[in-house]
Design goal:
Layout: E1 4-9, H1 15-26, E2 30-32, H2 33-37, E3 38-39, E4 43-44, H3 47-58, E5 63-66, H4 73-76, E6 82-86, H5 90-107, H6 121-125, H7 132-152, E7 160-164, H8 167-176
Parallel strand pairs: 1-5, 1-6, 2-5, 6-7
Antiparallel strand pairs: 3-4
Helix pairs in contact: 5-7
Protein name: Adenylate kinase
Keywords: Kinase, Transferase
InterPro entries: Cytidylate_Kinase-2 (IPR052922), P-loop_NTPase (IPR027417)
Length: 179
């Protein structure tokens, strides 16, 4: 029986939306890694801070965790049953990244509760590595190679992997998923 699930994928692939829907269907906690990692004013947590925030959530019997953060693999995949990889094409991810950023620019709402981290035009389009759009462009291919290698790694043989290559496949998975 699947109890602990990690949803991974390139930035803007829809990890959080998918994870929330899956957690709701399973009636288990949803854990958003970005919300644990980012502090106010776009300050990053140190590894020690991040791990300390993440560990208590992972002690639960069941959860759906969304996020990559390779530095946490040793923690989050220790007892994970299923990794769902949202592996959409580059064009789809770019479209989602740009459209999501524009929506957030217009709404001006904080990305994570308890922070004042909001999208700005400067940060979104002119800030180089801190731009989520540039980050998606830069990491899309790297993430594909990384997750293909991880799926083939004997160290992770205890994990069931599901690779969803389109939003349609993701919707079908959610409709058909049984606990």
């Amino acid at each position: 029986m699947t109890q602990r699930i990690n949803v991974v994928g390139t930035s803007a692939s829809g990890k959080t939306t998918f994870s929330k829907a899956l957690a709701q269907k399973m009636a288990v906690p949803h854990i958003e890694m970005d919300a644990l990692f980012w502090k106010s004013d776009w300050q990053e947590s140190s590894n020690a801070e991040f791990f300390a925030k993440l560990e208590p959530h992972l002690q639960a019997k069941s959860w759906v965790l969304d996020g990559n953060y390779t530095r946490t693999t040793h923690l989050k995949w220790r007892q994970v049953d299923l990794v769902i990889w949202l592996d959409y094409g580059f064009g789809r991810n770019l479209y989602q990244s740009v459209s999501r950023t524009i929506k957030r620019l217009i709404s001006g709402t904080a990305l994570w509760e308890g922070t004042n981290n909001v999208e700005s035009f400067q940060r979104a389009f002119l800030s180089g590595d801190s731009s989520i759009i540039w980050w998606m462009i830069k990491t899309h291919g790297k993430n594909q190679r990384k997750y293909q290698q991880m799926m083939a790694n004997p160290e992770f043989a205890h994990i069931q992997f599901v690779r969803l290559k389109s939003p349609r496949q993701a919707r079908q998975f959610l409709q058909q998923f049984k606990i």
